[in-house]
Description:
This protein is mainly alpha-helical.
Amino acid sequence: xxxxxxxxxxxxxxxxxxxxxxxxxxxxxxxxxxxxxxxxxxxxxxxxxxxxxxxxxxxxxxxxxxxxxxxxxxxxxxxxxxxxxxxxxxxxxxxxxxxxxxxxxxxxxxxxxxxxxxxxxxxxxxxxxxxxxxxxxxxxxxxxxxxxxxxxxxxxxxxxxxxxxxxxxxxxxxxxxxxx
Length: 180
């Protein structure tokens, strides 16, 4: 009985550690994957990938907490990035069953579309509230590098961590629960 409650907790802790590692890579002086001085949002990539592969292992509290941590560490408007991350991940959670049956390229296109929509929405919210607004070009550069980083995170998650889409219950086998 203990194994049933311990395993999901372990998976959640692993996801949080990987997401925080991505966040700390974003703020470290030596930043892998930086293109033209713009670092990708690795936290978003990890959260999206994990939510799509194991939607039941990442709850909204974890996502919002990670997003709020990123907002505070990166000096972004507190809560706006966390809310955007939460809304995007919940949309992806709802689409995980559909995306499971499609090629990875379609998943990537959906992630890119969400990133673009969130970038424009955040820019619009900041502009409407008369808050200091970073340049849209700079925000779109972060969106572009994040979009380019998503397949790299997906390869890492798939092959290093063994995270695949969870099978439907009637097709599940004992070997589907490797790590995720």
